[in-house]
Amino acid sequence: MLRAALNRLFGMLVVMALVVTVVFVIVRVTPGDPAAVMLGPDASAEDIEQLREKLGLNGTILEQFANYVAGVLRADFGQSIFLGQPVTQALMDRAEPTFFLTIFSLLIATAIALPVGILSAYWRGSMFDQAATALAMFAASVPSFWLGLLFIQFFAVHLGWFATSGYGGPGTPLFERLHYLVLPAFALGLVSSALITRFTRASMLDVLNDDYVRTARSKGMGEWRVVLKHALKNALIPILTVIGLTAALLISGAVVTETVFGLPGVGNLVVSAVLRRDYPVIQGALLVIAGLYVLVNFGIDMLYLLIDPRVRY
Amino acid sequence: MAAIAPALQSEPNILSRLVGRRTSLIGIIILAIIAAAALLAPFIAPYSPSKLSIASRLHGPEMAHLFGTDDLGRDIFTRMLYAGRTSLTVGFAVVVFSSIIGIVLGLTAGFFRRLDQPVSRLIDAMMAFPDILLAIALVAALGASATNVVIALGIVYAPRLARVIRASTLVIRELPYVEAARALGVPTPVILLRHVLRNVTSPLLVQGTFIFANAILAEAGLSFLGVGISPDTPTWGTMISVGRQYMDQASWMMFFPGAAIVLTVLSLQLVGDGLRDLLDPRLAKDI
């Protein structure tokens, strides 16, 4: 088992190194001089030179790469050009709304998807199953930003139940922040529930016909106990994986949803960085989010090793 | 080979079998209507997409303007038809571009044992980036234009295709007819093109349909954020983005383009689901 864990760790480190390299390459594929692009056509040669120095664009490509890797290892992603603060600080300042948005959306998605998926599989082919499958497919086809706008229109403007945008001032307690978070979390959670519903249904269908489920039934065990205790427990690994993957997808959805609802999170930061061509911020956000994704995947793999002794890498 | 042969024989009737499934048929019909409407836009659109009319600014849906007018008095139905052209073209171009990269990477990783590890790790690394975020970063680096949106989304979705093609190639590589071709001295590129590539078309078709759907959603997202195609070009995403500013007075401005996205993506998913069930029953069980 230790060997398997070490193997996986090595694989993770290789992927992480590649992620770091890919991010380095992305910023370098900018046609022309990124410093000149950032400063616009009116910038003087001196300003451009200064910015090049700041961005670490001087020296050979190998020197640039070495400096960049050294910075990444120290969690130093450079300085934001427009915010005048270190990228790490800018990301940390905006992590909270994104964190809560992701967590709440995931909770909503799971709370909808698990029961619907389980019941769909249990009543396979029924009206409920067909309606749930159709709804899941519909939810997967709706752009979350559009759903967010419809929510704002109806629940915030028309009914006045929630805030149309924002996150409250600094120091607002989390309970009050719900006023701002409920709509975006539902917009994102509903759309994301589709994938989890379909996976839950498929995994449950897989195990509901297995021998041990039949055995449990033949022993006279209560029907729901069989479904929830015996079947669900065994269907849980693929379901957990897809929930983990959804968490990563949610970060992607958060980029757009935060913009719709004016939440001052990482997504909003990235979009404004792109519009202002603030490359260090884009680079830092990409690294942190992709790095988190790789770590989450690694964590899920390790969990498998612990839960299921048959899994070997 | 026995396993592959029926799949190949059945491919000519795929369309008729697909039409036989009720849900797929609905998908095909909706998709055909949307594609035809986009294609025939210059003939069926009641107005010019750029015809301004300050007098009929922000009119709600009415007989003269089926879906209402926008802030500059332009007919929304007309603009939606033209926007459909861009959105569908971008979506299709993304499928083609990502297929090219995906096929090259997938075949390389699946067929050549030595290259499998490095290429697969690169695929893993690319898949670590959330799609919209990577697309945003790439468009930021390349510059905002329709072509660059296609390139960016193509790069984003290529690893998914590469993974599927690699998996199929790994199986096909070991089949007797590939071994026989090798023994007969058939050059590797010919084996790859004639024997391997031909047999990975099924998973390619299934994934391609889903990527088409995702690309339409992603393009709309990028355009909505203002980091994709220029707002002057009507796409469903840019129309929602503009409509958002007039949400209180003219909710139809953002409602109808959004509904067009939902219908298009939904119909692509219905067709994709049908294709998957017919061509790849193993996958159908998983999802």
TrEMBL record, chain A:
Compartment(s) of residence: Cell membrane
Entry's transmembrane regions: 9-29, 99-123, 135-158, 178-196, 235-261, 281-307
GO cellular component: plasma membrane
One Pfam short name: BPD_transp_1_N
Keywords for this protein: Cell membrane, Membrane, Transmembrane, Transmembrane helix, Transport
ABC transmembrane type-1 domain residues: 95-304
InterPro entries recorded: BPD_transp_1_N, MetI-like, MetI-like_sf
UniProt key word Iron-sulfur: no
Molecular function in Gene Ontology: dipeptide transmembrane transporter activity
Membrane topology: Multi-pass membrane protein
PANTHER family in alphabetical order: DIPEPTIDE TRANSPORT SYSTEM PERMEASE PROTEIN DPPB-RELATED
Family the entry assigns: Belongs to the binding-protein-dependent transport system permease family.
Name of the featured protein: Binding-protein-dependent transport systems inner membrane component
From TrEMBL, chain B:
Residue ranges annotated for the ABC transmembrane type-1 domain, each copy included: 88-272
One of the protein's GO biological processes: transmembrane transport
Membrane-crossing residue ranges in chain numbering: 25-47, 88-112, 132-158, 204-230, 250-272
SUPFAM superfamilies attached to this UniProt entry: MetI-like (SSF161098)
Subcellular location, principal: membrane
Places the protein is found: Cell membrane
PROSITE patterns, A to Z: ABC_TM1 (PS50928)
Gene3D superfamilies per the UniProt record, alphabetical: MetI-like
Its membrane topology: Multi-pass membrane protein
Gene Ontology cellular-component terms listed: plasma membrane
Keyword terms, alphabetized: Cell membrane, Membrane, Transmembrane, Transmembrane helix, Transport
Family of the protein in this entry: Belongs to the binding-protein-dependent transport system permease family.
Identification of the protein by name: Binding-protein-dependent transporter inner membrane component family protein 10
